[in-house]
């Protein structure tokens, strides 16, 4: 079974738990990257491409992504939030919601810059590699606090 399907089917629980789940999508913290607020959003159905999503899944992903990005932009130290899709480690379609913290810009130019400008793709790739760990070694306190904050913001918007 694919990694995302394992999370959807509650066979694998990410640090901080499931932030949001409805009949169409799931939002959770990345399971093996120790960066608080690095989120993954996926449809519940196993599809491999954005073009396979139905209109309801697209609408739900967009709505919850907007709320998650809004919450991350309010987290202390987050300067920008990247959204990307790669699909290299798992074929289950998913989007990366990646917060760029101030401390991330302290790397050498070759790691995250092109000329004098930050290259978001290089930064994301660099920190995905640098902060990769096992689920058991995740710093739960920071991750749990950020996921709880995002979960509360989403819940208040959905129920309000």
Description:
This protein has about 160 residues and is α+β, with helices and mostly antiparallel strands. The protein has a single domain (about 5-160), classed as HIT family, subunit A, CATH 3.30.428. The chain has five helices and seven strands, in the order αβββαββαββαα. It has helices at about 5-10, 55-75, 110, 120-130, 140-160; strands at about 20, 25-30, 40-45, 80-85, 95-100, 115, 115-120. Helix 2 packs across helix 5 (about 140-160). The mean pLDDT is about 90.
Write a concise keyword list for the protein shown above.
HIT family, subunit A
How would you summarize the topology of this molecule?
Layout: H1 3-8, E1 18-21, E2 25-29, E3 39-43, H2 55-73, E4 78-84, E5 95-101, H3 109-112, E6 113-114, E7 117-118, H4 120-130, H5 140-159
Antiparallel strand pairs: 1-2, 2-3, 3-5, 4-5, 6-7
Helix pairs in contact: 2-5
Largest sheet data: 5 strands, antiparallel
Category from helices, strands and their pairing: alpha+beta
Number of strands: 7
Approximate strand percentage? 15-25%
The H-and-E topology, N to C, reads as HEEEHEEHEEHH
Brief sketch in words of this structure:
Helices cover about 40% and strands about 20% of the residues. It has about 160 residues and is of the alpha+beta class. Helix 2 (about 55-75) crosses helix 5 (about 140-160).
């Amino acid at each position: 079974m694919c990694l995302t399907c394992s999370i959807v089917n509650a066979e694998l629980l990410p640090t901080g738990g499931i932030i949001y789940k409805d009949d169409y999508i799931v939002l959770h913290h990345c399971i093996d990257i120790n960066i608080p607020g690095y989120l993954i959003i996926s449809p519940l159905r196993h599809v491999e491409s954005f073009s396979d999503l139905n209109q309801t899944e697209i609408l739900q992903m967009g709505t919850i992504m907007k709320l998650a990005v809004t919450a991350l932009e309010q987290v202390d130290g987050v300067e920008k939030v990247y959204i990307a899709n790669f699909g290299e480690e798992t074929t289950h379609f998913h989007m990366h919601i990646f917060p760029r913290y101030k401390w991330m810009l302290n790397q050498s130019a070759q790691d995250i810059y092109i000329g004098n400008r930050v290259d978001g793709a290089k930064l994301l790739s660099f920190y995905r590699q640098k902060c990769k760990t096992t689920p058991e070694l995740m710093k739960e306190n920071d991750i749990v606090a950020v996921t709880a904050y995002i979960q509360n913001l989403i819940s208040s918007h959905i129920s309000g």
